[in-house]
Amino acid sequence: MTNIEKPKFHILEVSGKIYLSWCLDMEMHFQGQDLANTIIEDGISNEKDKANALIFIRRHLHESLQTQYLSVRDPHILWRRLKDRYDHTKIVILPQAQYDWQNLILQDFKSVSDYNSALFDIVFQLKLCGIKLADAELLKKNFSTFHALNIVLQQQYWQRQFATYSELISVLLTAEQTNELLLKNHDLRPAGSKALPEAHANFEKNTSHFKGYKRRQEHNPRRDSKEFNCPRKSNFGLNHGKEKKPKKVINESICHHCGMTGHWSCTCRMPKHFVDLYQTSLKNTSKRGESHAIKINPTAITTVDANNISVGGLLFS
Questions:
Q1: How many angstroms separate the CA atoms of 147 and 107, rounded?
Q2: Alpha-carbon distance 19 to 11, whole Å?
Q3: Helix (DSSP H) and strand (DSSP E) numbers for the chain
Q4: Does the structure show a pLDDT above 90 at 261?
Q5: Which residues have C-beta within 8 Å of that of residue 264, sequence separation ≥ 6?
Q6: Residue 276 class from Cβ within 10 Å (0-12 exposed, 13-18 middle, 19+ buried)?
Q7: Per-residue pLDDT reduced to its tens digit, 144-186
């Protein structure tokens, strides 16, 4: 039965890629279990502790490594052979870690959290190689890699004189989270997205034409001006709602020269003989009386009879 007890951490692969972190985890575990003397040169330990240390080391090795070191019965010997085999990893990791540190730039990352994660990965690799970075170096790296558009923001953070890198990164993370919330709120309700009022909507309330409401009197400098005192035109008159009366048809003027319509006498262009004929007809009409008028001569009535009446030589019966 294998894997009776789960590993406490990652096992060591044949490639030895994680040897440095694996070695650190093993040392910390042995110190906690009082088994550190089992892997130290000239360390004093009993057989029981050696057996427990050997079992724990083999449980965190790859199956190929377990087979290769199957004959080793002493934990100190096994620890030294693994160190001789994979301790050169420091020499391999160090150049790459130094290169990553030199090319670490804040503006290359989409978020502050991504930059912070990459920074601590590089710091851990350098620490495994025996190089420790102080907070002053971490702060300098951060301030020197701000984007050129954020130069004012960089100066403001620099003037605050942060003592530790953790203080600076907490402020940057808070500012980043606040900016994300502002952008989300803007996307939910961008500027100018509010519904416009209807074209004929009337939002004035409690106007003066409502009875029983007395508006607050306030001083208005335009009240004494002529424009303010001019009566305003209103669509609500006495005849509001009534049908409009048809307009009177105005007769066109008649030319006094020719009697035609459509022009005035001052602009008349009719020939002279037509004008003379029209003027002659007007004179003749004025001389003649009405066509059905009857002139009564009172002296012509000589006798009045109930049955026969003679008027002007005419006999009516």
A1: 6
A2: 9
A3: 11, 2
A4: no
A5: 253, 255
A6: exposed
A7: 888 777 788 878 888 888 889 989 889 888 888 888 888 888 7
Continuous H helices in 162-296? 165-188, 226-229, 272-287
Which band of pLDDT confidence, cut at 50, 70 and 90, is reported for residue 78? very high
Alpha helices in the chain, H assignment, sequence order? 19-32, 47-59, 63-68, 75-86, 89-102, 112-128, 135-143, 151-159, 165-188, 226-229, 272-287
CA atoms of 109 and 117, how far apart (whole Å): 11
Beta partners for residue 304, in sequence order: 309
**C-alpha span between 272 and 256 (Å, rounded):** 13
What gap in Å lies between CA 77 and CA 73, rounded to an integer? 8
Length of the chain, please? 317
* The pLDDT value given to residue 75: 92
Please give the model's pTM, rounded to 2 decimal places: 0.49
- Degrees (nearest 5) of the Cα angle 79, 85, 91? 115
